Amino acid sequence: MFKDNKYEEGDSDSYMGKKETKSIHVPDAPHRPGDITKFDPWSWRPGDLKMLEIECSVEDAEEHANGLVRVLDDSHQAKGEWNPNLTSKTLISGLEHMLRMRIFDERMMKMQRTGKLSFYMRSFGEEAVAIAQTMALEEQDWLFPTYRQPGAQFVRGRDMVSMICHCIGNEEDNVKGRQMPVHYTYKEGRYISVSSPVGTQFSQAVGVALASKYRQLDEVTITWIGDGASAEGDYHYALNFASIFKAPVILNVVNNQWAISTHSNFASNNQNFAIRGIPYGIPSIRVDGNDFLALYSVTKWARKRAERNLGPTHIEVLTYRAGAHSSSDDPSRYRPKDSNDFWPGGDPIERLKLHLIEQGDWSEKKHQELIDRIDTEVMDAYKEAVKFGDLANGPYPSSDAIFTEVYETPPWHLLEQWDEMKRWRDE
Fold it and tell me: For 65-79+92-327+346-407, which CATH superfamily applies?
């Protein structure tokens, strides 16, 4: 084998545990800056998928996991069995909430760019997700959001002044500066704090759902996770526990195609997130995330399953992140600037607006009047919020908040640290 401390001719690297391997496959986004954006047209049409029975089996839902539930067609008509047949009043309310979210986002981004906020994240293109789904729930239901579902707070009645105070981090910030901007929490609306370590909310939501079930309360929990975070363990832990214990929970994967600069093909090899729920024994549905009516209908269906003690529902919300990940992100570095214009699902606000116009319940004039009213509302809210402190000058929440509201009786070592901080602060 060896000769003069060298391999004899013909020896292979396999003797040393080496072997020739092919290079690791690293997926790439379908479009990069400079490319022509082209999405395959959807083959799924409204009416293709029938309404599932509430007591359906997992096998019954496989077609819906591989398909796409749609209600609004290309001519803005509502069609198919999944049409929730909502009143014009309900639809206009949904449209107003979505417009409020978009205008609020636009104004807050301008505030961030002018140094009045430290950080911000928009829901641009995804406004229908939280708003339609929350409107389909009951007031007592629990919400475990990501940072792209703040619109749920409008549905639950939160005022903008309170939201802006949190984003500024002034003395009226209800989380007292202990969270980043847009990491809202709203106790009165059962809107649980947004988590910076993304994905944790999925497991937490299942836990709360099980607690509600144990206490025999008429409460359902809904949660959302992004396509990127669905590659983390928390997602799978949640599905497993929810399935085993038949938790009354609605588990949404919001597939908006991008996890910051990483395309969704890093999180799923076949680009179908809905189907992942099937092996766990959970009925799973993929829904058009820019179709307000479809989102409402699927969520209402899932809630009925939960309230009848039939267990969880797994939903893939197929949408597109129209803007940047956050105020710290520049999407032009990793995708074409106009990619959103080619998304087959269109704009959720525009689609609902045109549907209402087609029904004779809305008009372009009414729409513009609503935009103007909300824009004034947002600016007035900001002026009111800065009365409690601005980013540059404060006043800010007290540093005492570091030690409060965690323990009913703080342990001795925290009390010592608190005293030390007070002495340092007063010097």
Answer: Thiamin diphosphate (ThDP)-binding fold, Pyr/PP domains (3.40.50.970)
376 phi and psi, to 5 degrees? -65, -40
70 CB-near residues (< 8 Å, 6+ apart): 42, 44, 45, 46, 48, 80, 82, 287, 288, 291, 294
Directed axis angle between helix 348-359 and helix 292-307, to 10°? 100
Asked if 170 and 389 touch (Cβ cutoff 8 Å), the reply is yes
- The pLDDT tens digits for 235-292 are 999 999 999 999 999 999 999 999 999 999 999 988 899 999 999 999 999 999 999 9
Over 50: is that where the pLDDT of 7 sits? no
Give residue limits of the domains in the chain: 65-79+92-327+346-407
Rounded Cα distance between 146 and 387, Å, is 29
pLDDT of 2 > 90? The answer is no
- Active-site choice (76, 178, 236, 334): 334
| Residue 321 annotated in active site | yes
190 in catalytic set: no
Q: Is 334 a catalytic residue?
A: yes
List 321, 335, 351, 367, catalytic entry: 321
Residue of 97, 148, 190, 325 marked catalytic = 325
